[in-house]
Design brief:
single chain
Length: 763
C-alpha cells in the first residue's frame, strides 16, 4: 500500500474517482523539464532512454524520422544495434517508459510512444497505484522533439559519449544481458526440483497471505494474459509456506449493474470468470485467494444528482467535486453487502477479504474524519461508522460463504494511533489485523523517531499493534500481523533484502504474541524468497529460537559446508540494516539507486513518490540532518560490504544443487549494497555543490570542488559496479507497482552524467 501521509490529500483524488474524460489529463505546467546537459540535446536523450525498450519503428514515428536515422543516431552514442525489445515492456513496463520520458516528451508524443489514447492514459495516471503522484503531480512543459540532422557540435559530443562508454564498459557491452522480465517466465514454470512442502494441507485457521511479485495493480482480472499468479509462482510460494494470495479489486467492477446503479458492472462477468479460474488453480497448491476491499469508492457529484440521500462528505482535497457514498445510508450498505454476496456466490472457494476503511480512499464519511460535514453522520461516533461498514462487508461475504474470512485492517482508524474503542466494537465474525511495527519508537544516529509502517529495520511488534491485538483477543476475535518480510519502501529495488536475523527475530516476537496469521506483504514484496521460509518455520514451530531458525535456513539454502559463512553474512547485513534512518522512504534515492542522476544546479523539483528523487535533500532526510542521514546509510553499506565477504565465501563452497540459488542470492546482496552505498555519496555531492555555490573564498571553493570530484568518481564506480549485476539479473531494479525503476543502460547514462559533471566542475 502506497501510504503517503504527507501526500495523502493528493493521493485520494486519483485512486477514488472513476475514469477521467479524455480532456482531463493533468494540465501541463509552466515549469521547464530537468536538464539533460550530458547529452548533445533532447533528441539524443530520447533515443538513448528508449533504445531497446521501444521498437525503433515506433520511436522513429514519434520523432518523425526514419528507422535508419534513429539507428544511426543511437550508434553515434555507442548504443548496440539489433536489440530485442521485451514484448512485455508495453504492458508490464509502461510505467518505466512514462518515467523516463516524463521530462522529455509532451503528451502528444508520449501517447504515441505508449500507443494509447488520452482517456486510457488519464485512467492509468489515476488508477495505477497513484501514478500521477509518483510523477510529482506535475507534467513538465516539454517542447516537441523532432528529428533533425545533428549539428557538428552534437556529433562531436555523441562521439565523446561513445568513446567514454567503450572505455568504461568495454567488453561488457558485447555480452547480451538477461532480457528484462525474464524472471516472469522463470517464475511461471513449475520447478521440477521443488520438493513437497512441509505443510501439505492448507492451514485454514492460520492464513499467511501475500501479493504477487509481478501483478498489475490497477485491474488484474481484466486481462487473463497478464496472469498475476501463474502455476510456477504458486508452487514456489507454497514451498515457502504461503497459503494465501490477494488481489486489488474495485467492487463496482465485480458486481452486476442494478436498478439502483445501472452504471456499475461493465465487464464484471469476464472478471469473475478470471477470478474463478484463479481460485481453482490456486486450490491445487492449497492456496486461498483474498480480495482487497476499500469500499465503497467515492463518486463524482453527477452520480448523486438523482441520489441526494446517498451523498456523503466531499473529498477535502479533490480539485473537482467528489463525494463519499454515505454508508450511514442503508441503501449504500445494502449495495455493498449484496455485491459481495453476489461475488462470493459466483466464485465459490474464495478465501475471504481484507478491508481498509479509513484514510487511504474516501470510502465513508469518517474515513478521513470529516463526518461532521454529513447530515446523516455528523452526530455519530467515527468508530461506529467504521464498524458499521466492516459489518456490512462481513454480512455480504458470509451470506454466500460462511467460512470465508473477513479481515478488518485497522489502518487509519484513529488520528493518533489508538483505535481500541473501534476494535472493541467489532462483531465476532471479523478478524483484526494490525501493522506489526507501527508506533515502535527508535533512535538512530542520535535522532529519535517513531515507525509508521513498511519497516524491516525496526523489529516489531510495536505498542499500537500489541494493544489492538489484546483488545481483539479479549473479545475472542482472531488476530493477524501485517508485515513486510521481503522488501519495504525502505528499499524496494531488489526482490528481498537478505537481513535474516531481523526477519527471524520479528517472527519470534510475533510467535510470542499468539496471533492467528500474517499478511506478508502489500503490493511490494511478493517474491518467493528465503525470508518467507523463516516465517514458515515459526508457523510450524512457535517454540523455535532465532538461532535455530537461522541454522535451519542456512542448511536449507547453502548446505552444511557453507552454513556458517551464510549466517555470518546475514548477521552483518542485519546489523547494518538496523541503522536505517527511517526517513524519506518515498522521496529518497534508495530505490533508483546509482541510476539517480545528479545536477550541476538545484532542479527546484520536489520528489514524486518513489519515482523522481531529484536532488531535494531536505525531503530525503527529514527528520534527520543530511549529514546524519548520510552517515546512517554509510553504516548500512558498510555492514553489507562486510557481509558480502562471507556470502562470497559461502557461495564458493555450496553443493551443486544449491549453486544457482547462491548465485542469485549473491546478486541480491551485491545490488543491495550498491543501492545503500550510493545514498551517502549523492548526499555528499549535493552538500558540496551547494557549498560551492555559496562559497566566497578561493580555499573554500577549492575544498568544495575537490569533494565534488571525489564523490562523482565514487558514484561512477558504484554505477559501473552495479551494471553487470543488473545486466545478468532481470529482477534487480523491478517492483510490481513501479515496474523497472531503471534498466542497465540507465547506469551507463549515470556514468555519462558523472563524467559531464566532472568536466563542468573542473572549470
Amino acid at each position: 500500500m502506497s501510504l503517503l501521509r504527507c501526500l495523502l490529500p493528493l493521493i485520494v483524488v486519483f485512486l477514488a474517482c472513476p475514469a477521467l474524460p479524455a480532456s482531463e489529463l493533468p494540465a501541463v505546467s509552466s515549469k521547464a523539464p530537468v536538464p539533460v546537459h550530458h547529452f548533445p540535446d533532447t533528441l539524443h536523450a530520447v533515443v538513448w532512454r528508449n533504445w531497446g525498450l521501444v521498437p525503433v519503428e515506433i520511436l522513429s514515428d514519434v520523432l518523425e524520422a526514419t528507422p535508419e536515422q534513429i539507428t544511426a543516431l543511437a550508434a553515434s552514442m555507442g548504443l548496440p544495434d539489433n536489440v530485442d525489445v521485451p514484448r512485455q515492456m508495453a504492458t508490464r513496463g509502461y510505467i518505466t517508459l512514462v518515467r523516463r520520458n516524463w521530462h522529455l516528451l509532451p503528451y502528444e508524443q508520449l501517447l504515441k510512444l505508449l500507443q494509447i489514447d488520452e482517456k486510457e492514459f488519464a485512467h492509468r495516471l489515476r488508477e495505477d497505484d497513484f501514478l500521477l503522484i509518483k510523477l510529482g503531480n506535475l507534467k513538465p512543459n516539454c517542447p516537441k522533439v523532432v528529428y533533425h540532422s545533428p549539428a557538428p557540435a552534437a556529433q562531436a559530443r555523441a562521439a565523446e559519449i561513445k568513446s567514454l562508454v567503450e572505455t568504461k564498459f568495454g567488453k561488457q557491452l558485447s555480452l547480451p544481458p538477461e532480457p528484462r522480465f525474464a524472471f516472469i517466465q522463470e517464475l511461471s514454470q513449475v520447478d521440477p526440483t521443488l520438493t513437497a512442502p512441509a505443510i501439505v494441507q492448507n492451514d485454514d485457521e492460520h492464513p499467511r497471505f501475500i501479493y504477487s511479485y509481478f501483478a498489475m495493480f490497477g485491474d488484474p482480472l481484466s486481462d487473463p494474459s497478464l496472469d498475476p499468479f501463474p502455476a510456477g509462482l504458486l508452487a514456489r510460494l507454497q514451498q515457502r509456506g504461503v497459503n494465501g494470495v490477494w488481489l486489488h479489486v474495485v467492487l463496482r467492477d465485480l458486481s452486476p449493474p442494478s436498478k439502483q446503479f445501472p452504471e456499475f458492472g461493465e465487464g464484471h462477468q469476464e472478471r469473475l470468470k478470471n477470478l474463478a479460474q484463479l481460485v481453482q488453480r490456486a486450490k491445487k497448491y492449497n492456496i486461498d485467494v483474498y480480495l482487497y476491499m476499500n469500499e465503497p469508492r467515492a463518486m463524482p457529484e453527477s452520480f448523486f444528482e438523482h441520489r441526494p440521500n446517498l451523498k456523503g462528505v466531499p473529498d477535502p482535497s479533490s480539485p473537482v467535486p467528489y463525494f463519499a457514498m454515505c454508508t450511514s445510508s442503508p441503501e449504500v450498505r445494502a449495495w455493498v453487502s449484496d455485491s459481495l454476496a453476489y461475488v462470493f456466490d459466483r466464485v465459490p472457494g474464495l478465501g475471504g477479504v481484507f478491508t481498509i476503511t479509513a484514510s487511504e480512499n474516501l470510502t465513508n464519511c469518517s474515513s478521513k474524519f470529516t463526518h461532521d460535514k454529513c447530515p446523516r453522520c455528523q452526530n455519530r461516533d467515527a468508530s461506529d461508522i467504521l464498524v458499521e461498514i466492516n459489518t456490512a462487508i462481513a454480512q455480504g461475504v458470509h451470506r454466500s460463504a460462511p467460512e470465508a474470512k473477513v479481515i478488518a485492517w485497522d489502518w487509519g482508524w484513529a488520528r493518533h494511533g489508538d483505535a481500541s474503542d473501534t476494535v472493541a466494537k467489532l462483531p465476532e465474525d471479523i478478524w483484526l489485523m494490525s501493522v506489526s511495527e507501527w508506533k515502535l519508537p527508535i533512535e538512530r544516529g542520535g535522532v529519535k523517531a517513531t515507525i509508521g509502517e513498511y519497516s524491516i529495520s525496526a523489529v516489531g511488534p510495536g505498542p499500537r499493534a500489541l494493544k489492538h491485538w489484546q483488545v481483539a483477543q479479549s473479545k475472542g476475535l482472531p488476530t493477524l500481523a501485517k508485515v513486510q518480510f521481503n522488501v519495504t519502501w525502505e528499499m524496494a529495488a531488489v526482490p528481498y533484502v537478505p537481513v535474516m536475523n531481523l526477519i527471524a527475530q520479528h517472527n519470534a516476537n510475533l510467535a510470542s504474541a499468539k496471533l492467528d496469521g500474517q499478511m506478508l506483504s502489500w503490493s511490494l514484496g511478493g517474491y518467493p524468497s528465503p525470508n518467507l521460509e523463516l516465517a514458515k518455520y515459526f508457523a510450524e514451530d512457535s517454540e523455535l529460537t532465532v538461532d535455530q531458525a537461522l541454522d535451519k535456513l542456512a542448511q536449507s539454502t547453502y548446505g552444511e559446508a557453507s552454513a556458517a559463512n551464510a549466517k555470518a553474512a546475514w548477521k552483518h547485513f542485519s546489523e547494518g540494516y538496523a541503522e536505517y534512518p527511517y526517513a524519506g522512504m518515498y522521496t529518497g534515492p534508495q530505490h533508483i539507486g546509482p541510476a539517480n542522476l545528479l545536477y550541476a544546479e538545484p532542479t527546484g523539483y520536489s520528489p514524486g513518490m518513489v519515482c523522481f528523487p531529484y536532488d531535494n535533500l531536505k525531503r530525503w532526510s527529514a527528520p534527520f540532518p543530511p549529514e546524519v542521514y548520510a552517515s546512517q546509510f554509510q553504516k548500512i553499506a558498510d555492514g553489507f560490504a562486510e557481509g558480502l565477504t562471507y556470502l562470497e565465501a559461502a557461495a564458493k563452497s555450496v553443493p551443486a544443487d544449491k549453486k544457482q540459488f547462491a548465485e542469485d542470492d549473491l546478486s541480491v546482496a551485491k545490488a543491495s549494497h550498491l543501492h545503500f552505498q550510493t545514498v551517502p555519496q549523492q548526499v555528499r555531492f549535493i552538500l558540496a555543490r551547494d557549498r560551492l555555490a555559496a562559497a566566497q573564498g578561493l580555499e573554500e571553493k577549492a575544498a568544495a570542488r575537490q569533494e565534488i570530484q571525489e564523490t562523482l568518481a565514487q558514484e561512477m564506480k558504484t554505477a559501473m559496479g552495479l551494471y553487470p549485476v543488473v545486466a545478468n539479473d532481470s529482477r534487480i531494479g523491478y517492483e510490481a507497482s513501479n515496474h523497472y525503476f531503471y534498466v542497465p543502460h540507465d547506469l551507463i547514462e549515470k556514468v555519462i552524467n558523472c563524467d559531464y559533471l566532472q568536466r563542468h566542475f573542473a572549470k
